[in-house]
Amino acid sequence: MEQKNGFSSDRNTERAIRHLNDCIVFDNLIPEFFTAIGSTDQVGYFRAQHNSDLLTMSSTTPFPQEIKPHYMCAESIGVCGILPYINRYYYILDNKLFLWRTNGINNHEQIMEQEKVITAVCTFNPARDFFTKSVNSLLAVATPTYIKIYPIENDYISVNTFYTVKVNFMPTCLCAGQLNQLFIGGSDGHLYSFQFVVPVEGYLGSFDPNSQKPQEPYVLNNLTASWIKAAIMSFLSFAVSPITKVVYDSTTGFIATLDSTQKINIYNYSDGTLSLNYSFTPPKGIQFVALREVFNSDSCHTRFIAFTSTGDRYFFGTTDSFMGKSTKIALRAERKAPAEMKGNELIDAFYTLGYYAFICKNEIIGIQSINVDPSNSYEFVTILKINGFGLAVAGLSHDLAWMDTKMFHEPFVCQHFVDPPQMYILTSDGGSSIKFVFPCMVLRQLLLQNNYKFVTDVNDYMDRFVSNDESCAMCLLLASLFPEEARQFIFIASQFSTFQIAEKEISPDILSPIVHSFYIRASRLLNLVWNSAVFYRRQDNSIKVSPAFNAMSPEFVHKLYEIIQLGKLYLEESEINSKQYDDHRLEVSEYEREQLLALQESLEEIIEALKFIKILSKQKSALLSIGIEKLNANSVARLINECFGTTDSNVFLITALREYAVALFRNTPQSPELDFLAAEINDECPMFTKSSDAQILKALTDLESASRITGDEKKQILHDSANTFIKYSLKPFDIARVCAAFIALDGDKHAVQIAAARAHAIDDAERAYYWYRNGCDINDVSGSKTFDDVYKCYEAAFDAAYSDEGLHTVLNTNDELFALLVFQRMINTNEIDRLLKLDTPLVKEFLVENAPKLLWKYYIAHHKYREAVIELIKFASDAQADNPDDEISFDKRIEYLEIAHNYARQQGLTKLVDEIKTRLNCARIQKDISHDVIGEPLKDLKDLFSLAQEKSLWSYLLRIVSIMKLDEVNKRDLDINILWYNFLFNGDGVSTTSSSQEPITEEFINRTLKNVFSLIGTSTIVSKPEHMLAIFEDFRNFHKFRIDWVVDTLTALNIDGSQMFNAYSEILNKYDTLDDVPERRNQLVYAALWLIDHGYNGDIEEIRKYINSILSNKNSPYYDEIKQIVDRINN
Fold first, then answer.
1. pLDDT band for position 984 (50/70/90)?
2. CA-to-CA distance for 73 and 453, rounded, in angstroms?
3. Which of 201, 99, 199 is nearest to 155 (CA)?
4. Which of 352, 561, 650, 1097 is most buried, taking the most CB atoms under 10 A from its CB?
5. Element (DSSP H or E) covering residue 926
6. Which parts of 113-249 are beta strand (E)?
7. Listed GO molecular functions (predicted)?
8. Where are the chain's structural domains?
9. Which range is most confident: 871-885, 948-962, 985-999?
10. How is residue 985 annotated by DSSP?
């Protein structure tokens, strides 16, 4: 089975990581409270025993004194509210807006508009590429004819800096959208959007006043109707219902509106386009007083909650369909108000993280949804009296509202990693902040009341949350929140755990409640990043740290450290109390120690990784991208495509991060930014770059600096760095890049040594060497894999062999496999001359097995000429069937033989010279016969003769006989005559070499003979006249060529005329039957006389009797021709 990796190869943390994953999976399977809502009877309400168990309220911040005179003079009723994102309360009186801070500071701000009335106010966030960094928010103030936008800079509102947006409708409500965006509800019943779209110089409103049509830096759109329809609806205003509330869920893109008829419309907003998803008209008499969004983190399905004046809640959202996809948004549940609302009128409401704040006329009601045990879901309720008449309640979204996780669905879970929700209320007496209390605080209050004694009341309360060991997890959370009381909380958890495991079987894979609580606490912190990749690619392909890691609070790592320290504290206490343990408890204690130590080791590694990632999150994208570009594909996938907490990967997370750390500094130009980053990593992550890794990182950094240094200092750096890599050769550094760095710095020797060290460390038994030498058996999977691993090491230093230093270092390593692979590399890269000059038996051995065609060159390089000639003859003559790549053509064989001939002649190797000559002729004949069959071995004369005879190739037979020795001819005179006869009358000399369309003429035959004699020569046995003349004369006579054609043609081909005369004389005197054929006889006489007439030596007396006989009879054939020649000879 393939081994999958999680975090690190250095520690045995597999079981701890598995337990953490189990905890995360369990929490992710807790159904959200909204899915449990059915009838009120199924999900009940429970009143808190003490108000402080759920809700606390600060003192009241009164209205500014300056408001009272304006209130007395106001023409319309004032409107109050809260702007939580700028920490302000506000009061609208006619066209005046008063704002004062929620922190109790008395100074206030006042804005007065030109219109008679302000209809709505809202804050929204600016885009950083549009506004200066000091602008942290924007305040929108709406009137019937325009909306003014005021930038809030460093928490200060300048009433003289604004931008005016003119509108042709009356805004009735405002809502923040995305950055630079507002949604606006109109009195005409339409929904509008406002969006800044282009940067402007300086602050808003700085445009050329003289421009007739200045470009506006915003877009104002009617999202719910065309401009024509909008105009009609504005004219018929009595037919429309003004929008009274707009709510936008920035995490999903849904918008909900409430109009004056109590109708709720829910839209989907995407890319500037609005689409209606659902409309809801409540039963008659229902009055909605608040409409709130539910962020993606809080619920997978519920998107909005509407609150009625009686305290009822309407939940709008989606549900899971049968195929796993969400259905369309709709009303999904209704929930009646708690009994505490009886007789109260709800004025306003707010929701976040499972907590509700209902502000009524004289009270505020807090509600907490509990669903940690899905079989027992309920809501916790408390009531606080308020001073004055309730006016408004508001709060902030939490910082992680955008996260798509189920960790926020249950207060028992999310209390481990977020602060309790804080909200603001406004009453007729002023403003106050309210803060909800997490469930663990109830347990703490109970423990305080009982002086941290594990009494029945404590056990009973903790037993209510025994499911998934939530009680012990709360104790651990309290130990972190109140470190001075940590020992007491650990004691309580330990006591409760002991009762739970009594009589129960325990094992390494089963966690006791208290140990489980450590894993729960850690997993709930880590869940925020567990399923997120370390990096993500932006649209421009650059790299950034994933948002989940950027969102980690400064205390995040500290909280993980606290878990380690609390674990050590528990183990110390357990060791102290172990003397009182029975055998079962002792066994449990031993398992707990192993399980907690494994967790601590895992957390230490995870903490170092998170600290490193946090450092990276502060770096520029360009720098981060440089590191990624230098990593191998598996490490890149581990950091970009795979979750932080996955255990199904080909690369350990710690390994990938360390490789990335090294890559950041490798071949990157030195800069103050990079130096600061290196220092910060060394300071903040000492364990992340622990001893060996720190030394490797230092060695890499030193290599970078060595490129700017010369002389002895550079040599020392290379030497020291090389020793580091050799010492830690099995550590996961990129050997290819390390060796490349040394090579670039002229450290070829060091590159070779590092590669050899890594190869030896991987394969000290030399399995790769024996696998290679024994034929590379592909069925030996283990040997093949070992060879591949070792080869990668050697390959990293192959380029070092281009220098003499590097090549000799390879030979001095005594690593035979390394040397053999380098030799192969030298051949592949055309470094053959250098290879052949190496004076080592390994080269000859390598050439014999891998490149035999180069062996002769090796002998030449070492002045062993006889061996070189013999090798050339052997290579040129033998078949190469075992290796098709080495099969050679006849041209190549001939070339090798010619090279061998030259060396043999130069060195005076006479016997070899003669042998080579014969082989050369054979090779050329065989090439013509076989038409260059690649890979066919050379044949000897005997085999060639048989082959040509078998195929009736008469011209080739003539060539073969021409190079045979006399004793090899073995009385073949008659055979030679037959060869010439067949060549002229039947063989390839005429019928096979001439075109079927070309007639047999003297010119054609002359060309053919010229070709043949150029191959067989004029002084060989087959070119002797006595073997040719009779056949040639018959051929001439048969084709009726001119009488002197034979002698004229052969002498032109440099056949000796004197020998030809003697041959003619012999024929005339030998064959008496010629007298019976006077014409043929006279032709031969004429030919013989022609030779004498043309200056060739010959004893005319030998044929005198034939001349006299012819001249005695004028009627004899060719009388005149012969007489003319005789006369010329006599004269």
1. confident
2. 62
3. 99
4. 352
5. helix 910-930
6. 120-124, 135-142, 146-153, 156-157, 163-166, 171-176, 181-186, 191-196, 218-222, 243-249
7. structural constituent of nuclear pore
8. 31-38+48-200+214-436, 706-829, 1024-1130
9. 948-962
10. I
Tokens in use for 106? 């008395």
Domain 31-38+48-200+214-436 has CATH 3.40.50.1980: no
Residues 6+ apart with CB under 8 A from 683: none
Instruction: Give dist(CA 19, CA 600) in Å, integer.
Output: 13
Amino acid at 147: I
Burial of 880 (0-12, 13-18, 19+ CB in 10 A): middle
Report DSSP letters for 668-726, one per residue.
PPP-HHHHHHHHHHHHH-TTTT-HHHHHHHHHHHHHHHHTT--HHHHHHHHHHHHHHHH
Six-digit token string for 1093: 């007439």
**Residue 81: half-sphere exposure toward Cβ, Cα within 13 Å:** 18
E strand residue ranges, 830-888: none
- How confident is the prediction for the chain on average, in pLDDT? 84
* 888 contacts 935 by C-beta, under 8 angstroms: yes
d(CA 601, CA 19): 13
- Answer yes or no: are the C-beta atoms of 386 and 327 closer than 8 Å: no
pLDDT at position 1043:
92
pLDDT (0 to 100) of residue 885: 55
Is residue 998 packed enough to be buried (19+ CB in 10 Å), middle (13-18) or exposed (0-12)?
A: exposed
CA dist 755 to 530, 573, 631, 759, 765, Å? Answer: 37, 51, 19, 6, 16
User: What digits encode the pLDDT tens for the residues 1082-1093?
Assistant: 899 999 999 999
Inter-residue contact 54 to 382 (CB < 8 Å): yes
Give the Cα separation of 290 and 247 in Å (integer): 10
Q: Give the burial class of 162: count Cβ atoms within 10 A of its Cβ; 0-12 exposed, 13-18 middle, 19 or more buried.
A: buried
Whether 545 contacts 634, CB under 8 Å: no
> How many other CB atoms sit within 10 Å of the CB of residue 123?
18
CA distance 417 to 428: 35
Residues in the chain: 1131
According to DSSP, residue 738 is labeled: H
- Local structure of residue 986 (DSSP, 8 states): I
Residue 742 and residue 713: Cα distance in Å, rounded?
A: 15
Euclidean distance between CA atoms 1075 and 1061, whole angstroms: 19
CA distances from 568 to 494, 496, 1114 (A): 14, 19, 144
- On the CB side of 495, CA atoms within 13 Å amount to 17
Torsion of CA 701, 707, 709, 712, to 10 degrees: 90
Q: What is the DSSP letter of 1019?
A: S
Cα→Cα distances 897→453, 866, 905, 941, Å:
105, 13, 12, 16
Give how far the C-alpha of residue 590 lies from the chain's centroid of Cα atoms, to the nearest Å: 44
Spatial separation of the C-alpha atoms in residues 901 and 696, rounded to whole Å: 59
Q: At what angle do helices 486-501 and 439-449 cross, to 10 degrees?
A: 100
